Amino acid sequence: MKSKIALKFKSFEDAVVKTVEELPLDANLAVADFEKIQNSQISHICFNALDKFILQEKKWPQVWNLPDAKKFVDIAKAVAKGGKVADEELKDDSSMVRLFHLFSF
Asked: Is residue 2 part of a domain?
């Protein structure tokens, strides 16, 4: 017979703003997909920025549309600042901003 177990999770917002070092590592969740593990914070920022873009513009960003891409990157930078990302990681030539640009197209 199975018994009920109550699980409690942190809110998504709380988990997103934490760095990898601040989150506990569960050995059962260790995965060999290191590319996603490395960029998980960037992925969360990009999807949060996409949601905000859609709310603000009332449309999805157009494919290969430079004005939409610039708006998306600006929103992503604002989301990243709220997520305690260092200013040096948000410079225009940083790898994080390059990934924002790739995501936007």
From this structure: no
